[in-house]
Amino acid sequence: GAVSRYTEAISALCAHVPAGSMPADREMLVVLRSNGSEAFFRLGKHEDALEWAELALAVDPVHKKSLARKAKAEKTEKRRRERERLEREAQEEHMRLQERNDAIVKIQSKMRSVKQRREYFANKQKRADEQHVEILVKGREINPLKHNPKCECAKNRACHRTKSTGQQHASDYN
């Protein structure tokens, strides 16, 4: 492509020049580096475009096209870095929100489990209360859940059903 041709032309231009010296045709070197910068830019290699523009400006600091190409590459690179920073921040925020969401889902699951257990035991108690199973103890029928062994009137079953009457027997206070 164009970049390899510009690289070849610069190599040919500098082939007989000692290291650290400038070729006789400095203007051609600036043009080749500046055009190489544009070629890199069009390929989407903005960092390379910036580097080549700076190389051209090292030879001729006021070369207008090189200055414009450097500015264009810097601006594009700045936007790219900003976009990458924003994407990284968005990804981090997404991860924080995902962790928070996972924690909320876990808590909600535990709450459902506690609620289900609470409902289960409430229903179990309700069924036990509804069954009103009575047993025979010492020849007397009493409700085992309500019986107070200190009660002297075990013959009167109504006093042991305090839940249905809403009253407590006097012996329950002893």
Q: In which order are the strands of the major sheet placed?
A: 1-2
Strand content: under 5%
Shape: rod-shaped
Residue-averaged pLDDT, rounded? 79
Tell me about this structure.
The protein is mostly helical and 174 residues long. The protein is 66% helix and 3% strand. The protein contains 5 helices and 2 strands, in the order H-H-H-H-E-E-H. Strands 1-2 form a two-stranded antiparallel ribbon. Helix 1 (2-13) runs antiparallel to helix 2 (26-42), helix 2 (26-42) packs antiparallel against helix 3 (46-59) and helix 3 (46-59) packs antiparallel against helix 4 (64-131). It is rod-shaped, with a radius of gyration of 45 Å. The model is unreliable at 132-139 and 155-174 (pLDDT under 50).
Q: How do you describe this structure in short?
A:
The chain is 66% helix and 3% strand.
